[in-house]
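Hi everyone, sorry if this is the wrong subforum. Our group has a chain we'd like a structural model of before ordering constructs, and none of us has done structure prediction before. Sequence below.
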Amino acid sequence: MKPFLKIIDQNALSILFLVLSDLVWGMLAFVAAYYIRNDFLGSGIQPFPEYLTAMPAVALILVGTFYYFGLYERSQRTTKLSEMYRLFQAITFVWLLVMAGSFLYKYDYSRIFVILFYGLGLVFINGGRVLLRSIYQILHRKGIGVVRVLIIGAGKPGKKVSEALQEYDEFGYRIVGFIDNKARKKKGIKILGKLENLVKIIEKHSIHEIYVVDPSISHEKILELIHECDQAKVKFKVVSDLFEIVAGDIDLKELEGLPSLDLKKHQRGILFKIVKRIMDIVIALIALTIMLPLWIFIILAIKLESKGSAVFTQKRSGLNGEVFVMHKFRTMHSSVKANDYAPKTKSDKRITKVGRILRKTSLDELPQFWNVLKGQMSVVGPRPEMPFIVKEYTPWQRRRLDVKPGITGLWQILGRKDLPLHENIEYDFYYIKNQSILLDIVILIKTVAAVIIGKGAY
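Answer:
Right subforum, don't worry. Here is the predicted structure as tokens:
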């Protein structure tokens, strides 16, 4: 069964079965309501084909309403009583919509049929869900569809997470054990090993999900662990609100709602790449053309104030670590070394008077549009780092080289230069994982706003 689980998303599959179950039992309730009314309660009503034409609309109303009431949420795990209550609410709403549709359509469907459909729908659909739960429980007892969970951190928070998951045993959660470098063997706590053996433990025990609950593990260490387990195809979930866990104010829905962390390459389709490249070229051409008079003025201002070239060149690491020459307007005295650290304060004496204005307005970045035209950079993306720093990257940090570097990005609009580039890698990971044309447009708009107010620019 293990290969099957790798191919198909269990959550998506369970939702599909749930939708099919609701549709089948809902339509059976519809048909049963018709024949009970037509054959046993009074005189006959309109022929069944006339009612049959309404079934597709009723099916859409049913699924749409159930979705609205949260009955198909992937993270929603509820007790039988809670589910029955929400089903009652949803089916009542479906019934009201069917009646309203009948009125608007101006077709006189049997009122007794509509009432029967409401009552039978409650019984049939709820019964179908109970049956589906029973089938899942049988499969889980046989080890089919089970989610094997490993918890990193055997302290009090880890135990609370374990208890929360075990309360929902019927949904297939199985706590395989804990990993903790400090914990000793305790009664009821199964310690499988230490962090350095994580990959072997995952393979040995066929782990599907890992909950990181140990507060002593740094974010950087977590990212290293995720990178090490890249080939294991497991989901990492980091539980951060330890107060709620220790206080016991946590349930499975909150745990399931945690985002899964991964560092895998997120390849976008060829259409995205084409549109992004066209957008880069268009923006770069517009910037280079419209800003040409300003370029001349900036170059003259730099040359008049200090000696040296007006354009500063520096080697940077681009896509897949390929080194290229990046261009900027010089904002510091020519005596400053090319690989010197970037200014962190406005009072840095290395910055020239003209340079201070350029950095404040981000006009020093304008020559990089030439790098964009050459295909070495994109308008939006992670900022390119210097090669000697990239050489010191850990394997997980090198993932920021999976996309072209950009002139602007999340780092610029959220933090700008308040922090060193290498301390903003989390922004780059978010962009790489969620990149889209819409996100690029949002970043560009916010960049303009950030430049106007001079947020964080030194």
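For your construct planning: Strands lie at 147-152, 173-179, 191-193, 209-212, 235-238, 311-317, 323-329, 378-380, 406-408. Residues 10-40 form the longest helix (31 residues).
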